[in-house]
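task queued by scheduler; priority normal; single chain, no ligands, no partner chains; default sampling; output format set to C-alpha cells
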Amino acid sequence: MDLHLFGEGKHERIYEKLGAHATTHEGKQGVAFAVWAPNAKSVSVVGDFNDWDSGKNPLRSLGGSGIWELFIPRLKEGELYKYAIKTRRGEIFKADPYASMMQVPPDTSSIVYKSRYKFQDRAWITKRNKRQAWREPLSIYEVHLGSWRRITEESNRPLTYREIAPLLADYVLQNGFTHVEFLPLKEHPYGPSWGYQVSAYYAPSARYGTPDDFRFLVDQLHQAGIGVIMDWVPAHFPKDAFALARFDGTALYEHEDPRKGEHPDWGTYIFNYGRNEVRNFLIANALYWLREFHLDGLRVDAVASMLYLDYSRKEGEWVPNEFGGRENLEAISLLKELNELTHRECPGTLMIAEESTAWPAVSHPVYAGGLGFDFKWNMGWMH
C-alpha cells in the first residue's frame, strides 16, 4: 500500500517511510533506511559505523517502485550517514532527501534523529482550528533568525532556537504583532542566501540547534499567543552535488530539459511537478512542517515563477504547454492540490502566496476556480 500510494503521489506521510528511522524490527533495535533512486545501479548506506565503505551495507531494491531499503541492527540515533549511489557514470554520495536532521554546514552528512519533544500548545491549536483568519487582525513580523540578534562576545554568533524564544516572544508582543514569519529555516548550504536555496527539505537548519530545539521555539511562541509562519520554497532547489541535484545520476527531482528544469535567474533546478513521486515529496513536506512542528502557515515563495513556463525567459528559451500556452499546468495542479490538502488536514493553517503578477483568483477557493491560497503576499511591504 505504501509503495502504491507513493507511486500515485498520494502518500501524505511518506516521510515516515522514506529516510532513516530508529525502530525495532523482528525484536532487534536499529535503524531502517529507505530512499527513492529508480535509476541507480545499486545503493548502499555509508557512515562512521562502516568506515564509509560502500561495499558493506547494500540496500535491496523494491522493484519498479524505485525504492531501496535496509534495516541495520544495533545502529543508534546520532549516526552520520549518506547514500552511496552507483550510476552509469560512477559512484556518487548523497545526503538523504528525507533526513530529519543534517550536520551544521559546510558539513553535509545526514543524521539519524528521533524527536522526543512534547508540545504544550494544545490550547493554541484548539483555538486556531476554529479561526477564520480573514476576519481577524493579522500583523506579521518577518524574521531572519540568523541575523535578528547576535552574541558579539562569542564571535558574533547567532542565537539558538532556544535562546531566541523568550526574546522574540517579548519583542513581538511589545510591538503588537500577531505572527512571526521566519525566512526559510530548512537546511541550506549557503548562509547569505537567507535559506531560499534548500538542500534538505525535511531538516530544520542545524546552525541554530536540533529539530526539537526548533519545536521548542514554535511551542514557546504559541504559548505566548503568537502564530508562526515559515517561508517554504517549492519553486527551485540548488545544484549542490551532495543534495537533490541529479540524485541518482539522472534528472530525478528536476526536469532534464533546461528550458523547463533550470531557473535562469537563480542558477538553480526547477522541480518536475508532473512526476508523482516529486509531487509527493513536496506536498508531504508542507504537511510535515504543519503537523510535526505545529506551524500555523506557510508563505509559498516565488509562486509567479511556478505559474509561467516563460518566467524570466526569452523567446525560444521555454517550452509551451500541451495547449500551446505559457501556463505551467503541472505546477498549477500541484498548488491547487497542496492548498486543498493542507486546509483539510491542518484546519486553521494559512497558505500565503508570494505572487507578483496579475494571475487571477490566487486567493479564491479551488472549487471557485482559484488557486486556493488564503492570502497573497503584498510585495510592496518588504525590507
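post-processing summary
- The mean pLDDT is 95.
- Residues 88 and 249 are 7 Å apart (CA to CA).
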